[in-house]
Structures are given as C-alpha cells and as structure tokens.
Amino acid sequence: MSLDDFEATAIPNAVSYAFCGPSAAFLCELAQLMKQGTDLEELASPEFRRFIERRRYDVATSSGFIINTCRELESEFLDILALREDFLDKPIFAIGPLNPVPMHSNTDISHDECLEWLDGHPPCSVVYVSFGTMSTISDEQVEQLASGLHRSGHRFLWVLRDADLADIFSFESSSRRLPARFEKAVEGVGKVVRGWVPQLDVLAHRAIGGFMSHCGWNSCMEAVSYGVPVMAWPMHSDQPANARLLAEGLKVGVVVRGWDRRQEVVAAERVEEVVRMVMEGEEGRRMREKAREMGEAVRAARKDGGSSKEALDMLVAHWRR
C-alpha cells in the first residue's frame, strides 16, 4: 500500500485524525481479537475484513481519534481503548452522538405516510422494526418474524426493504415468504413500509415504544439519543458487540438472538416473547425508564458542560495549537 492512498498523511508537517465509526466497545473487542490472532471470518465479510486491515494504517499514522460516542455511554471502553498500543499517548475525542438530538414535538417535521400513521396511535404503543440497509434475512425468517409480530398483539411499523428479499404485497409472487394476505390481516395494527423512512423522526415520535434493530452503531446511537429501548438482533461486524453493550452494559435493551445462535431461525414464539417483554410488564417498564434516563444523559452530553461538547472544544483547540 503506497502513501498515495493516504494523501493527507503524506503532506509534510500535516497531521491526520482517524474517524472511528463503530462503538468503543467494538474497537476494544476487535483489538483483542486481532492481538489473539483470532480469525474474523465468522464476524465479518471478506470486504469488511479488508477494510479493517486498511484502517490499521490509519490508526498507526493518525495523530488522534474521533469517535461517534460519548462518555455517558462508553466511559469504561474509552478508558480501555486509551491503553491499547495503537491508541496509547494519542488523544481520543468522543464527540457523539453525531445525529441530531433535539426531541421533536411532532408538529415541526414533514409528515410522510408512516409518520401520519404513527400519529393515530397512543404513546409508546408501536414497535419499530428495521434491520438497516446492509442486512438480509431469509424467507423463513421473514415468515417467523411476521407471525411473531402479529401474535404479540402489539402495533408495529416494519421497514421491509428490497434487501430483505421479501415480497409481501404480491399475492401472485412465487415466493410465499409471509402468510397470505398478511398486510390485510394486520391492517390498523401493523404497517409495512417497503422504502426509505425518516428514522430519526420515527424514533422521536411519541408513539414508538421499542426498536427491533440489527444494532448498527448509528441506529444504536439514534435509539439511545431518543430514549427508545432496543430489541437487539445482531447480524455481523460490530453488531454483536453493540447488542451486548445495550442489553448487558447499559440495560436499555434485550438480545433477540445470541451471537452463538446466529445460524438459527428465530421462532415466532421468541419474537412474540421479546416484544411482550419490552412493551409490557415491570421488566419492560424498567427498560423504558432506563432508556429515557440514558437518552437525557446523551442529549446533555452535547450541551455546554457536557462531555461531548468539551471533547469537541478540545479537538478544535488541538487543531489550532
């Protein structure tokens, strides 16, 4: 690899900073796995593994690190990361969340179809289901997920993109991934969206009571920012570490399927169980309360006196020195 690929680092008297998109928890785990020589094949695709190798050069040559997290979420992991060989004696600026954090009033946002649908439901009554743009689930899994959501009896907004390989609208489709006339059966209770949705506005909506997610770090940060508990369904890369952080560390979520069972299809009964766990009863109440508290802390981190605002000020001062 030539320095031509990294023009900024090749400029005389220039300094570079590595932006780290994943969580500090995952960066710590990744550093440990690589130190042990662990094969990352089960964790990441060949493309992602090549990206990790490429990023090792960025880490080695950088003058500091900018991370989309904050001490309110990952203080312990940020401290561990600072002691890692590649990060030692280099400043770490935790300036997250990078997503907008003001809470919407539901009157100052553009109302598309799914937001108008949410307007018709009570506070904290809808489960938002979205697995991002880079995750796919099998035909059988789509069917089980649909059945579990329906059986739970709770309202849901399900983003089922083309990447998910399912066609629930065409009853003539040769692929019967969902029960026939599923959309009709859940009318008024569930809504399926095939395209893009304004996720920040959805998570900020008063009707959302839980988020079933693949646990990509951006989605995690957005959910925590808005105080929404997460039903964690990790699929690859940094997602298992993020899921454990939310469920075991922060206590703002529950893992739908453990990473050790990633090859298994999650049964409808488990989907129903997790939805009921988050949306009903004492355990769900505690989880929602913890998520709200964490959301307030994360939003405060961006304000004057908050950890992220101070880190950003330090970063600017570092550039100006």
How would you sum up this structure, described in words?
Keywords: Glycosyltransferase, Transferase. Pfam families: Glyco_transf_N, UDPGT. One of its GO terms (molecular function) is UDP-glycosyltransferase activity. Residues 6-100 form the Glycosyltransferase N-terminal domain. This protein has 321 residues and is α/β, with parallel strands linked by helices. It folds into two domains: 3-96 and 302-320, Glycogen Phosphorylase B (Rossmann fold, 3-Layer(aba) Sandwich); 113-298, Glycogen Phosphorylase B (Rossmann fold, 3-Layer(aba) Sandwich). The chain contains 13 helices and nine strands. It has helices spanning 7-10, 24-35, 46-61, 71-82, 113-119, 139-152, 182-185, 199-204, 217-225, 239-249, 268-279, 281-301, 307-320; strands at residues 17-20, 64-67, 92-94, 126-130, 155-159, 190-193, 208-213, 230-232, 253-255. The strands form two sheets. A six-stranded parallel β-sheet has the order 6-5-4-7-8-9, with helices on both faces. Helix 10 (239-249) links the parallel strand 8 (230-232) and strand 9. The protein is globular and about 65 Å long. The model is unreliable at 1-5, 105-109 and 165-176 (pLDDT under 50).
